[in-house]
Design brief:
The chain is an alpha/beta fold. Helix content is 45%, strand content 18%. It is built from eleven helices and nine strands. Strands 5-2-1-6-7-9-8 form a seven-stranded mixed β-sheet, with helices on both faces. Strands 3-4 form a two-stranded antiparallel ribbon. Helix 6 links the parallel strand 6 and strand 7. Helix 1 runs antiparallel to helix 3.
């Protein structure tokens, strides 16, 4: 896909999102679309946590442009829940389906209404993009990672939403299970999305150890504050924001994903 084709795709995606309640930041849409539109390995796209379907629409439309027949998403579609206690009670599944219908994506989305642990019992497909945006507690995020990361293809991308939010799960799991793991190489942040590429050769991952260590050091204060329910002192927060912003690399060029797809 050329840059011009991707720009047109992004315009179409933004138009579709006008019909859906925004649950992903506008500045994060291009990067999420890039991840789905440029496969870096064989496999499917799996989304954990769909809510009302905004990110589902982005992933589905972009993955179709890459030639995928469908994407998978899993969510119990119940509220309130532990990480969203202020939501009104009831099932959000009808609204999710309605949003897919309005945007024309319903035929291309395989939705599993239930918990990710239930889907994992029957899952057997390789994954090229794993988007984790479900239970934001540490236990919930860790469980999603443990259940589905074994299915990541060599070269696949794993991405966590809300790494820079106040819930501790995404940041802690991204730090300890991804950045400190010899099974991941290139990594970074785009908005509040933490991402990394899965690699099965330790000697390849080792090339990116300095990059991962620097990002780990930058994020540690935030992870610690979230885990303890504390606010960072003002000076430390300013320093953290400065370091964090050095990794806010939302690539505008399609060459970014092409490079990840060809370096293995």
């Amino acid at each position: 896909m050329s840059k011009e084709s991707f720009d047109k795709l992004l315009t179409d995606i933004r138009a579709s999102l006008q019909q859906v309640e925004a649950t992903i930041l506008q500045r994060e849409v291009p990067f999420l679309a890039l991840l789905a539109a440029y496969p870096t390995s064989p496999g499917c796209v799996l989304e954990i946590g769909a809510f009302k379907g905004a990110s589902t629409v982005v992933l589905s439309r972009a993955a179709r442009a890459a030639g995928d027949e469908c994407i998978w998403t899993v969510d119990p579609f119940t509220s309130p829940c532990e990480t969203d206690p202020d939501l009104a009670g009831g099932s959000g599944y009808p609204e999710f389906l309605s949003n897919l219908e309005k945007t024309g994506e319903e035929p291309f989305v395989r939705a599993f209404q239930g918990f990710s642990r239930d889907l994992a019992k029957q899952w057997n497909q390789p994954i090229r993009l794993l988007w984790i945006d479900g239970d934001h507690t540490y236990r919930g995020t860790k469980q999603d990672f443990d259940l589905f990361s074994p299915f990541l293809s060599d070269g696949a991308i794993i991405a966590f939403h809300d790494v820079l939010a106040t819930q501790p799960g995404p940041c802690r799991v991204f730090l300890h299970e991804v950045l400190l793991s010899p099974e991941f190489g290139p990594c970074g942040l785009s908005g509040s999305i933490g991402w990394a590429q899965h690699v099965k050769r330790p000697e390849v991952a080792a090339r990116y150890f300095p990059q991962k260590l620097k990002l780990y050091s930058a994020l540690c204060p935030h992870a610690g504050a979230c885990a303890l329910g504390l606010r960072m002192p003002r000076l430390r927060k300013l320093r953290y924001n400065f370091l964090r912003n050095t990794y806010r690399q939302a690539p505008s060029s399609t060459e970014f994903l092409r490079s990840l797809a060809t370096w293995l």
